[in-house]
Amino acid sequence: MNIDVIYSEILSDHDNKRYVIVDKDTGEILDDAQGYGYKSKQNAYAAYAYKNRDRSKDHVKEQKKKAVKEWCRQNKAFVSRLEDDAFQIAKGSYGPEDKFNIKWVKEAFEEAGYIDLPFTAAEFLKYW
Predict the structure, then answer these.
(1) Contact 75, 123 (CB under 8 A)
(2) Range of the domain at 14
(3) In what order do the strands lie in the sheet with 3-7?
C-alpha cells in the first residue's frame, strides 16, 4: 500500500500541528491516532510501520525469550557469576578497558563449556 503522512487542519489547533496517515492513491485516511492525530510525521510513519510489521517474527522472539529464561532458571550459579561480573565491571574493579557486553558473555559461555545453546550471547543479554 502506498501511504503518505499529511497535515490535518481539522485535528490541529494554533499550538499543535497534527498529522494523519492517508492512502496516496485514494486519499482515504488510514490512521488518525484514534481521532487525535500524530504530533509529528515521524511518529505517524513509526506507528504505521509498527502496526503493519511482520508479526510472524514475534513468535520467534517469544520462543527465544522463553529459552533464555528457562536456561537461566536451570543455571543459576552461572547467571549469578555473570551478575557479579557485571557489578564488578560497573563499579570499576576490573580494568578500564573491560566492558560487560556480548563479547564478555560469549567468552564466559565458552569458558564454562556452554557451546550449543539455543540462543546467542546477544539474545541472552536482551532477554536475561
Answers:
(1) no
(2) 3-51
(3) 3-7, 19-23, 29-31
Task: Note whether 85 and 44 are same-domain residues.
Answer: no
Indicate the pairing of strand 3-7 with strand 29-31: unpaired
Beta carbons of 82 and 106 less than 8 angstroms apart: no
Alpha helices in 1-128 (DSSP H): 41-51, 56-74, 76-91, 102-111, 121-127
Residue 100 Cα distances to 76, 82, 108, angstroms: 18, 9, 11
Quote the number of domains for the chain.
2
At 24-66, the pLDDT tens digits run: 999 999 999 999 999 999 999 999 999 998 888 888 899 999 9
Q: Full-prediction pTM beyond 0.85?
A: no
- Looking at beta carbons, which pairs linking 21-24 to residues 24 or more positions away fall under 8 Å? 21/47, 21/48
